[in-house]
Model the fold of this input.
Amino acid sequence: MFHVKQGKLKIAPSILSADFTRLGEQVQEAEAAGADYIHYDVMDGHFVPNISMGPYIAEAVKRSTSLPLDVHLMIEDPDRYIPDFVSAGADIITVHYEAVVHLHRTVMRIRDLGAKAGVAINPSTPPFMLDEILPFVNLILVMSVNPGFGGQHFIPTSLQKLKRLRMMIDDRRYDIELEVDGGIDPNTAEPVAASGARVLVAGSAIFGQGSIEENIRAIRESAERGLARQAF
Ligand SMILES: O=C(CO)[C@@H](O)[C@H](O)COP(=O)(O)O
Done:
């Protein structure tokens, strides 16, 4: 894991904001429009105040696309469900720093089961809390809203956090994807990319209104402008 691979910007539509009566169709539309991952939010009503989807729907989503399934577990005791999501076809499984006691064990478990392992941090968690786990993860997810709901406003202090993490990753030459999630739209995509994010999750800005294809294009173009003027 000790080489830097910048790669291109990735867009990960969050299907939390999709039309569930046409879920397969909307996932396919996102894929045809050039999405890179399908972001799948799992909420348990405990770690976050909302309840969303479990492994059965994940398995159906996986069958409807050839894109990697990027599963974000916003749940307490995620270890209980990691094997179910791996069996459902999850390619990346991200757990919350705040939800896990033995984070290294959890991360290694995800990797041993054959998926990539991510760690997410809430808006109030400082980046240095990830210091010891960085050598073991494939992805870091910066939550730029308090997790639990789509359609919230981007928290601007997330930009400093992204810059700090970008530096931590690059200075140590880790091959880790830096993902951001919450309030990403054509306005915020530029500053988050300029601050170091390389995977942008967006829900309401992609599925909320208008064409999925145009919405993805607008976010990608904005992020590419941000990448071109990296803020550090
Ligand atoms: O994890 C979450 C919310 O907790 C996200 O993935 C949301 O689904 C993003 O929605 P928007 O802020 O893009 O509408």
